[in-house]
Amino acid sequence: MEMKRVPANIISFGKRLRKSSIRCVGVKPNWSDYPGDLQQEILLAGKVCYPGPVYSEIFQAAGICVFPRNYYLFMGDKIAQTDLFNLLEISHPRTGIYYGRAMSKRIENDFSYPFIAKTPIASSQGKGVFLVRGPEELSQYLGTHNPAYIQEYLPIERDLRVVVICEKPVHAYWRIHREGDFRNNVSQGGTIVFEGIPAAALDFAVETARRCGFDEVGLDICEHAGKYWVLEANMVFGQEGFRKKGLDIHEIIAKLFDP
Q1: Is 227 a domain residue?
Q2: CATH code assigned at 120
Q3: Which residues contact 198 (CB under 8 A, 6 or more apart)?
Q4: Do both 148 and 100 map to the same domain?
Q5: What is the DSSP letter of 32?
Q6: Buried b / exposed e across 179-216, counting CB within 10 Å, b at 16+?
């Protein structure tokens, strides 16, 4: 017999909804750690929020509605993000992924110096991002990276962080790099500016999140050559921009679930 779900019943595993009325049951390492009645309630829930990487894909395979969608799958995985942007034809800097031997020759055939090299998995806050200006710096990068993630260099002085939740732009600010650094990350000394956010940039961010199925994301975008580009999707994003604006991300999310 097919189970009948209760659409109004929402259960949260993670603490992201701590300021909402939604019950949080915590993330336990084993499904058997949850009491039988709670297991049944989860299986019948209309939506399960922030289940963590352990349960997210499993719940979706079982037909359970998970929030946020496409969250853990793309978290910290620049290769998967690039593949998704390219598949959907979302403007994204030209990027190459290289495996195996003789990578330097293939990279130099495809890209002109300078270009950007990144640590493709589990890097954030501007760490693992390198401006490669010549063969020596490329050799240093390849000495510690396989696969190699190479991206064209866009000569920009700032980028825009737009946080989109449930297809709503809940916060946005410019990030301007400090003198002598090409990275705009706030954690690397970048400056936050709230003024002059173009409506077209917010529209681009919302449309990108919608097409990618990102229910909660901090998108880094920039304007170059007369159009907007998405640089990266951050599922775990810094809170400094929220604090400077007097905003609380947990209150924002709670209001979306408890309007």
Answers
A1: yes
A2: 3.30.1490.20
A3: 223
A4: yes
A5: G
A6: eeebbbbbebebeeeeeebeeebbebbbebbeebebbb
Residues 196, 243: one domain?
Answer: yes
Chain segment 174-214, per-residue pLDDT in tens = 998 766 555 555 555 568 899 999 999 999 999 999 999 99
- Phi–psi pair at 207, nearest 5 degrees: -65, -40
In whole angstroms, how far apart are CA 232 and each of 15, 128, 173, 185, 256?
A: 25, 13, 15, 12, 24
The domain containing residue 128 runs over which residues? 94-152
Quick one: angle between helices 103-110 and 135-142, nearest 10?
130
Spatial distance between the Cα atoms of 109 and 79, rounded to a whole number of angstroms: 20
Residue 16 lies in a domain: yes
End-to-end CA distance of the chain: 35
pTM, two decimal places:
0.90
Tens digits of per-residue pLDDT, 76-123? 999 999 999 999 999 999 999 999 888 999 999 999 999 999 999 877
Q: What is the mean predicted confidence (pLDDT) over 222-234?
A: 95
What residues have CB less than 8 Å from 185, skipping those under 6 apart?
A: 125, 126, 175
Closest CA to 171 of 116, 124, 103, 240: 240
